[in-house]
Amino acid sequence: MLILSTRTVRLFAVFSLFAAILAETPRLLSQASTDHSPQSIAGNYEGMIGPKQANLRFRTNSDGTLRGSLDHLGPDAPWMFVLADIQFDARTLRFKVPFVNASFEGERTADGSGVVGTWSQSKNTLPAAFTMVKFDAAPHPSALDGIWLELQPGSRTAQGGSEPGRNQMVFRSDTAGREFCTLDQLDIYTMDEECSTVNVNGNDVRFTVPAAGVAWNGKLSADGNELVGTWVAKIESGQTLKDYTTSSDFHRQKALSAEKERPRVEYDAAIAPVAAADLEGVLNKDIAEALKGNDLAPATGGGVTIAVYAHGVRRIFCYGAARVDSIYEIGSMTKTFTGLLLAQMAEQGKVKLDEPVRELLPAGTVAKPEGQEITLLDLATQRSGLPAMPDNIGLENLAQPYADYHSADLMAYMGKHGVANPTQASSPFGSLGFGLLGVALATRAGTSYDELVRAQIAGPLEMRDTAMNLTPEQRARMIAGHDQFHGVSDAWKVDALGGAIGLRSTAGDLLAFLEATLHPEALHPDGSFPASTTLANALRQSVAPHGEVTGSMHIALGWLYQSETGNYWHNGATASNSMYAFFNPKGDYAAVVLYNTSPGVHGSFAEVLGRHISQRLAGRPAISLTHY
Q1: Distances in whole angstroms, Cα of residue 75 to Cα of each of 192, 458, 619
Q2: How far is CA 80 from CA 44, 63, 105, 509, in A?
Q3: Most buried residue, 18, 167, 199, 581, by CB count within 10 Å?
């Protein structure tokens, strides 16, 4: 599916619209509008968040609640963000943007034509103002106006069949003769993606959808009931853009098609806290539906390996196509290893947490800026101000987007971008910061990132299956991976960004990592690995919170800490694997879930299962696995 693929592309290449947030004083209007109902706020809005253009859209659901999105249609940051927790009560509007850990609170203007308030991200704020866009519909529809539906090639289902993906276009023209459109990706819960341009010349039609990263070229049929053409995605390759195309055929519809029903979020009743030795028996019942017809059904090829520790007892077991010693990609869980490497080298006096990263890079890589610059701690705590990804990654090979991105490319990017960080702005959770940190630490140590992990962490903890580069025997134990539609997907090849996403491991190895973090006092120096003498203190340092992500979420050196549950946690995902790990010092328990399939449109099954296990260990109501 082209549009699904290009959404993956933009996750690789996305840089946050809001990375340059500065603290400013908000302007609020206190007047109330005439209509106070939630439905009255629905509509399209254009506005500014600080110096950046941004567009808001609110729609009313069938139950009267609101859904919404925020995007910027300029060429530098066209991506769309889905809003959460939308609240409108008479005059005050509030919403959150989870992808960038941001929120908005403001008040409606007296005439109801707009909203003015404050954009907040981490501890920084910006003034934000939006004005409702009035649309004067043409008295007579154009030849293009109406509803159009495309059925894309089918994706595999858990039962072994296939379902077509549905894309819905809605065109409308105004009194000035201008054409407008929106795209609904009905089966991946992505609605109202706005077109930035619609060009109609006779029967030739072209429109672009920046939020999806695509354009459409084609013709309107003579009878006016078909649009036949191609989707075109601009894929970055080095310093150039190349077109990636796929055929597309839309048919006119009389009515709007409904968005695919979202899985219901339900909770199983709480039971007494489950012991590690009993967890498999409890999960056999909890996961039964997923094994029969959902994410672990035989037709999907899905497999999951689970390792759990509680009060000195550990267990490892598996379901589906997995084995207890299967090796998986762990994706962003790698960041917790890189954070521990920083703590280790700081304990050994090889680096300082507040040391500028510039000083660890090859001489002449980047100029010293005026004022405050990016430190190693900034990189490890997501406050470097860097975007999620460097902009010089060639994305022509979607199956292996990182394979040809090497340290020289990363250094070239940093030389161009610079290392100034005057405001310690929060960074989106991408791969650039930890990738740079991994390269910097390996450069200071005079070795590769892979070898540094072995010498400083994997070796002392006897994690023999944790590495970037595997032996032939280990490669034979790599579990076959799958994309979100359960199709075969290859493991990523990673070089310069290895410190963010490059490690592979087993459930047993990762459980040893969690146990050591829970109980560093149990570690003893190992003469074969000199780094073992500093590891206990480094582990303690790696979990010390250094900043707030949201009100209840804090960040340590890679690890995220949730004060509500007492859990430290991290997830990870690649194009073919996903995982979730957590540990709870107060409860003295930990677990890791490894799944051989990439997260899908319903989110990450590995993360849902991990949260379920955490709740079972704590004796709380557990999120139901029935619909996953």
Answers
A1: 19, 44, 49
A2: 14, 24, 19, 38
A3: 167
Contacts of 416 (CB under 8 A, 6+ apart): none
The answer to whether residue 411 scores a pLDDT higher than 90 is yes
Q: Kindly report, residue by residue over 462-511, the tens digit of the pLDDT.
A: 999 999 999 999 999 999 999 888 888 999 999 999 999 999 999 999 99
- State the pairing for strand pair 226-237/560-562: unpaired
* 218 found inside a domain: yes
Pair 278, 317: CB distance under 8 Å: no
Q: How far apart are CA 506 and CA 464, in angstroms?
A: 9
Tell me the mean pLDDT in the region 181-204. 89
The position carrying tokens 């010089």 is: 392
Cβ atoms within 10 Å of 545's Cβ, excluding its own: 17
367 and 452 belong to one structural domain: yes
Residue 244, domain CATH: 2.40.160.90
Q: What percent helix, strand, coil does the chain show, rounded to 5? A: 25, 35, 40
Q: What is the pLDDT of residue 11?
A: 33
Residue partners of 427: CB distance under 8 A and separation at least 6: 16, 19, 382, 383, 384, 385, 386, 387, 388, 433
**Number of domains, the chain:** 3
Tokens describing residue 516? 């050591």
More confident residue, 236 or 343: 343
Separation CA 579–CA 505 (nearest Å)? 11
Residue given tokens 């990870």 in the structure block: 572
Task: Name the DSSP letter for residue 456.
Answer: I
**Higher pLDDT among residues 489 and 165, named by residue:** 489
Distinct helix (H) and strand (E) counts, the chain: 13, 32
Nearest to 582 by CA among 548, 606, 549, 602: 606
* pLDDT bucket at 12, cuts 50 / 70 / 90: very low
What's the domain range around 18?
2-132
Summarised one tens digit per residue, pLDDT across range 553-573 is 899 999 999 999 999 999 999
Does position 608 have pLDDT exceeding 70, yes or no?
Answer: yes
Whether residue 72 is found in the same domain as residue 203: no
Q: What's the whole-number average pLDDT of the chain?
A: 87
**Residue 141 domain flag:** no
> 557: which DSSP letter?
S
H runs (alpha helix) in 141-244: none
Query: Does the pLDDT of residue 315 top 90, yes or no?
Result: yes
Look at residues 253, 286, 310 and tell me which one is the last residue of a structural domain. Answer: 253
Bridge partners of 171, per DSSP, are 146, 181
On whether both 220 and 305 belong to a single domain, the answer is no
Work out the pLDDT band at 72, boundaries 50, 70, 90. Answer: low
C-alpha to C-alpha distance for 434 and 499, rounded to whole angstroms: 6
pLDDT class of 235 with cuts at 50, 70, 90 = low
